[in-house]
Amino acid sequence: VSGELYAYLLLVLVGFLPNEIWRMLGLVAVRGVDEESELFLWARAVATAVLAGVIAKILLLPPGALAQVPPIIRLAAVGCGLVAFLLVRRSVLAGVVAGELALTLGALVHRA
Amino acid sequence: MSLAADKPSGLDAFLAGFRAAWRSVLSYVLIGTYVGIAALAHDFGFSLWWTLLSTVLVWAGPAQVILVSALGSGATAVETALAVSVSSARLLPMVLSLLPLVRGARTRPRELLLPAHLTAVSMWIEALRLLPGIPRHARLPFANGLGLSFMVAAQVGGVLGYYLATSLPPLLKAGLLFLTPMSFLISTTRNCRLLMDWLAFGFGIFLGPLLAAWQLGLDTIWTGIVGGSLAYGIHRLREALR
After folding, report:
1. How many Å lie between the alpha carbon of A105 and the closest alpha carbon of chain B?
2. B49 versus B9: which is more confidently predicted?
3. ipTM over 0.85 threshold
4. What is the pTM of this model?
5. Alpha-carbon distance B192 to B188, whole Å?
6. Is residue B227 within 8 Å of A52, Cβ to Cβ?
7. What is the mean pLDDT of residues A27-49?
8. Which residues of A touch B203 (CB under 8 A)?
9. What is the pLDDT of residues B114-130, one digit of tens each?
């Protein structure tokens, strides 16, 4: 039971707090920042760049089972997803489904 | 019910936000993503309740993956806390660029605690897209409904993944891990309006893997600061030359 309790303690100290501190810093910094302010615009640019960087990193240096799929198939699948998104009325669903199908088919063909 | 009506109650706006989440592909993406995260937590020996609570408290997929795999593979508490914190730095600019849209003239600071905690990539993307069309006084409950709804989706995925953990074939696991980059890529491009957004996106795509390959450390933070500031600077320069 103490081991179980320790796991929850770790969750709070090592998971929750080091993560939440960024949200709380944002909450403090956001006072006085409105939609017209330059800081607001800059923060959006930074957040967009981080997100794009994280996406590219996952695709090129993927975690776990995704690493078993060759990079060329991963990138081709992303391309299929984007093209489907643009062709089918800018539907996110169509893009995600097309990308997933392309990845699965590519991985199956590669394995065969 | 329409939110454009004179005075929708807070509950109506909350429920509208809750429903809006289920019209977004990102809810279903979250289910799939958390199937993967919960399966990972199961494999590393964490309990179901611990896994579900980690989603409530941390509410950031990449940080949860790091937390589970680091603790599960015997990293020290300090190492794990640092790795989690570095991966979550993006939450600061996200909160900064979301809460001014959520806040009304009479919103008290403590009312922003919940939307700040609910801020994560899915919520940020959809709130930035939907909030401009919501009347100012309805935005706070709408954003809370949206964020909590996404969290419900993640928990549904978490329970499924925990029990399916032992029976997921590797190809399916690969497909689940692919959901995050594929859906975020499309949703982010859909949200790009200003040239600045496109530039920030392009710089991020380019700098992210480059800085990661260089192994500078803190590469996602540098990607954001350098890529975002470049995009913002070019935007300002263009405005000034106009």
Report:
1. 10
2. B49
3. yes
4. 0.90
5. 6
6. yes
7. 92
8. 49, 52
9. 999 999 999 999 999 99
Q: Rounded to the nearest 10 degrees, how much is the dihedral formed by the CA atoms of A39, A44, A50, A56?
A: -150
DSSP state of A16: I
Percent of chain B's residues with pLDDT above 90: 74
The nearest CA of chain B is from the CA of A102 a distance in Å of 10
How many other CB atoms are there within 10 angstroms of residue A35's CB atom?
Answer: 11
First to last CA, chain B: 44
Q: Which residues of A81-93 are buried (b: 16+ CB within 10 A; e: fewer)?
A: bbebbeeeeebbb
Contact B57 A11 (CB under 8 A): yes
Cβ-in-10-Å burial (0-12, 13-18, 19+) of A111 comes to: exposed
Assigned token pair, B218: 């803190």
Interchain contact, A65 vs B170, CB within 8 Å = yes
A·B CB contacts under 8 A: 297
* Tokens coding B2: 């329409």
What's the whole-number average pLDDT of chain B?
Answer: 92
Interface residue A21 vs chain B (CB under 8 A): yes
CB B82 within 8 A of CB A18: yes
Whether B3 shows a pLDDT value over 80: the answer reads: no
* A37, two tokens: 């302010």
A1: confidence class by pLDDT, cuts 50, 70, 90: low
* Residue B6: pLDDT band with limits 50, 70, 90: low
B84 vs B79: CA distance, rounded Å: 9
A29 touches chain B (CB under 8 A): yes
Chain A, window 74-93: residues with a beta carbon less than 8 angstroms from a chain B beta carbon:
74, 77-78, 81-82, 85, 90, 92-93
pLDDT of residue B214: 86
Instruction: Quote the minimal CA–CA distance from A62 to chain B in Å.
Output: 8
The nearest CA of chain B is from the CA of A44 a distance in Å of: 5
DSSP characters over B140-164: HHHHHHHHHHHHHHHHHHHHHHHHH
Whole-number Å distance between alpha carbons of B240 and B149: 42
Average pLDDT over residues B48-67: 95
